[in-house]
Amino acid sequence: MLEELKKKVYEANILLPKYGLVTFTWGNVSEFDPETRLFVIKPSGVDYDVMKPEDMVVMDLDGNKVEGDLNPSSDTPTHVEIYKAWADKGVKGIVHTHSSYATSWAQAGRGIPCYGTTHADYFYGEIPCVRCLTKEEIEDAYEENTGHLIVGEFERMGKDPIAVPAVLCRNHGVFSWGKDGNEAVHNSVVTEEVAKMAYRCETINPRVQPAPQELQDKHYYRKHGANAYYGQAKKS
Amino acid sequence: MLEELKKKVYEANILLPKYGLVTFTWGNVSEFDPETRLFVIKPSGVDYDVMKPEDMVVMDLDGNKVEGDLNPSSDTPTHVEIYKAWADKGVKGIVHTHSSYATSWAQAGRGIPCYGTTHADYFYGEIPCVRCLTKEEIEDAYEENTGHLIVGEFERMGKDPIAVPAVLCRNHGVFSWGKDGNEAVHNSVVTEEVAKMAYRCETINPRVQPAPQELQDKHYYRKHGANAYYGQAKKS
Amino acid sequence: MLEELKKKVYEANILLPKYGLVTFTWGNVSEFDPETRLFVIKPSGVDYDVMKPEDMVVMDLDGNKVEGDLNPSSDTPTHVEIYKAWADKGVKGIVHTHSSYATSWAQAGRGIPCYGTTHADYFYGEIPCVRCLTKEEIEDAYEENTGHLIVGEFERMGKDPIAVPAVLCRNHGVFSWGKDGNEAVHNSVVTEEVAKMAYRCETINPRVQPAPQELQDKHYYRKHGANAYYGQAKKS
Amino acid sequence: MLEELKKKVYEANILLPKYGLVTFTWGNVSEFDPETRLFVIKPSGVDYDVMKPEDMVVMDLDGNKVEGDLNPSSDTPTHVEIYKAWADKGVKGIVHTHSSYATSWAQAGRGIPCYGTTHADYFYGEIPCVRCLTKEEIEDAYEENTGHLIVGEFERMGKDPIAVPAVLCRNHGVFSWGKDGNEAVHNSVVTEEVAKMAYRCETINPRVQPAPQELQDKHYYRKHGANAYYGQAKKS
């Protein structure tokens, strides 16, 4: 079942080492199928260079394995919670990585400020860093509660997940998302790149401030929404 | 039309990912043809690995598309303004990138000081960082006003664009130029390299000063002008 | 003799340049054979690209060469001491490198704090940095005393080498280990990666604290011990 | 003439881009032939990927071109002075680069302290940074005076060029040397690597001190001199 999607998810997973976002097996991509309301995800702990499309695991939104010989990624319950909350808003692909610069920000417990147009082209404002889970949340259901926390914090901060398609989890790593697995990987690459630039930028000028709001708006809306004019595709 | 130039501009664009200056489609190269007073530029948002020479777009200096199926780079109006002001001074190729270290300086709002001969071999003095556009300039005609700002600031600072073939745009990225697209790419590579060294240099010695003027002069004039003696070509 | 193991040790050595952990010949891998109580190690100063499996050297735990035309790695006496103390605890592969970030921490004389789950997935707590040898220890038997120091310091600190499979040697470099040469290389890669992230993390937030203990526990025990649930293998 | 040596020098030059030590044409290697007292050097400003062995230029120690169609490297007079002073001490290969980290130290005006054994394995003590030339020295004979300065400063500091086979030139770049062009390249790679580690090391611990002298001695003499025991070659 979902053979087409398995192939797509496999290929999106393979992009993670290609873009230098993962070491060993430290990452996973999933994609949601709106018709069946199932999603396909990487198996846990399988090396990228031996993994095959048929190793992908099919899951439902109750966290049950629907098809697959292997265990799904141990982060699967986080994907479940994000899809449950946001799939109907358009979040149909999710990526988790420990990409090097972004994870350094996560370890430092800080969100990535929007210092320039590279960031504003993809993210409307800061990429937030959510708090650590409490001892109780960790012991109760760590991965599921990570999903609850992300969704809850976006709500609390009034952030639209479509406009801010990534989050840092304190002391942990990065989740990013998009309209499919491929776009989620794309947003992961951008997160790493802006994490790198923001890191250097603060070293060059320790008193740097975020980019002016009007510049952030200009770049974000040049690429998104009804009046976008970047690229070739017609937006409507 | 301009088939030869389209091929040349295509190849110069392909150098951007080769030299690690761009992520995804974040960059563009154009080249000006003095005979027809047209220029050829990369199409907007097209991936480097599927782009073909015939995808290049031909533009005139009024910003009209003269030939091409695709939309030109969204930064085209910036290229137009630079050619209008400087093509007759010898600026016949322009590159825009968000290359990682140089953009970190742009985000920090600082020009790149001339700390050594690597810089002085290519740039006479600091690579300046021009201010952000105002809200009005952004809303009115963002890309065109970026071109006006660059040209105006070089005039105000008394900088010769031939002797300082790159600029940082605050909170944004880098524009570089040269006698053709290829030389503009070359200057983009150098900008990134000196941005990298200047960043580290200030960490190693926070009180570092620019290189002595006589050393800057020596290296710049060893490679440029009537008395140049670097390389194989005769200068006259 | 031990032809199979020589091939394995050769291949583990070849992984060091593949993962970017060594420059020139600055690294070595060995693996211990519990049956014969011999170990196989890289020859000293031989380039990775001309080295062959049959160049590997067979040593006993008294530091005698049992087989091989070439001199063993000059760090062999350190390997001997570690196997003598820890082989029966499960340490059957050892790696030494001067990998760039981890060695920077060693030169700075600091252990690598556990700032996040990437670290906690592999190491239970800080990767310690042991002191320099004294003048007497250096002059007496430098490499052997390095082994004594590592083993002695782990005992003094109450650290289990299985739970903390790497150490920094002050002003020197890294030793890591595992259940075979391959796992030791794996732990070397992780050490370098967490060294890199911890370095950046402290720059981003100079007052950063280690990750909460409950998060460290969660990630460590998600991958290790009777209740591990990461990956595909059954643990018992 | 010297066909064998031209090939060797060509190949040593080709190692510079291979090891990531040069951008474009920013580097050169020469090697001295003790029999004829001539040396072979890279031509000026020729791209590494079009350069051929027969392009190498043969020079004498008075700075005259003895053979070759192309201009020699513009740094040739520096090579001349170094060979004149040190060829009889064993310096028979010279490399000049602007390698990125080492040049950052040169721009910062600081020598590279010996923070660990990676450094001590190759360099006995700090890699010094010599002062800028004066206006008069620059205008009189820049490249020749660079050579005089290096030789004079080593004498003044009581440093043996064989034991410290590299130098930083303030605001400029790196010269390294060895018993042939290949060893000089090797020392250039090490200089870049220790520059990188020292840079990070000072960030991790701003109060770091050089490695203890007895550890520096141990590592230096483990690889050099009559009692060396690293590697396979017999020393006598």
What report would you give on this structure?
Four copies of one chain form a homotetramer. By secondary structure, chain A is an alpha+beta fold. Chain A has a single domain (3-223), classed as Class II aldolase/adducin N-terminal domain (L-fuculose-1-phosphate Aldolase), CATH 3.40.225. Chain A contains seven helices and eight strands; from the N terminus they run αββββαβααβαββαα. Chain A has helices at residues 3-18, 76-86, 100-108, 117-120, 135-157, 181-204, 213-223, and strands spanning 27-33, 38-41, 57-60, 65-67, 93-97, 129-130, 166-169, 173-178. An eight-stranded mixed sheet of chain A has the order 4-3-2-1-5-8-7-6, with helices on both faces. In chain A, a hairpin with a 4-residue loop joins β1 and β2. In chain A, α2 (76-86) packs parallel to α5 (135-157) and α3 (100-108) crosses α6. The longest helix of chain A has 24 residues, at 181-204. The radius of gyration of chain A is 17 Å and the shape is globular. Chain A starts with a helix and ends in a 13-residue tail after the last helix. At the A-B interface, α6 and α7 of A face α3, α5 and α6 of B.
